[in-house]
Design a protein that fits this description.
The structure is a single chain. This protein has a single domain, classed as Immunoglobulin-like (Sandwich), CATH 2.60.40. The chain is 12% helix and 38% strand. It has 2 helices and 8 strands; from the N terminus they run αββββαββββ. Strands 1, 2, 3, 4, 5, 6, 7 and 8 form an 8-stranded antiparallel β-sheet that branches. The two termini are 16 Å apart. It is found in: Endoplasmic reticulum membrane. It comes from Horornis vulcanius. Keywords: Endoplasmic reticulum, Glycoprotein, GPI-anchor biosynthesis, Membrane, Transmembrane, Transmembrane helix.
Length: 144
Amino acid sequence: CVTLDVQAACRDTTVTQELLKEGFHRDLLVKVELGEDAGGCAVAAQVRLPPGIYVDPYELATLQQHNLTKAVLFPDAIDVEAPQYLARDLVLLLFLERDARCSRCFRAAVPVHARYHRPAEGTQEALVLLESPEVLLCCCHSEI
């Protein structure tokens, strides 16, 4: 793709993310609909995960071995036992697959887990805010 094609694809792009299921073990679904078809470009979403949720690196490695997801986690060493108030933000680079029904649509899902928060009086819920993901396009059609 030439630069003009990428700019056209990025215009009017829609990005949505949903947390599926209930409880401490959920799936994060990220969907991207580009403004127009970006040809053979690869699409990824960079998601910042706050300390209240995490991706288990061992689970992610298993999913990748079975070709069920493509993702990179920063940092890659995570204390899955740590409570929210001792954890740090994580960055997940999630590579999206093209939706067979829509040439401009991409999606991917990854399991996420909630962390324990500090005990609080009078409430049974904790709020975890997810920022909007950044969409990255790679239109490098080389052999690399």
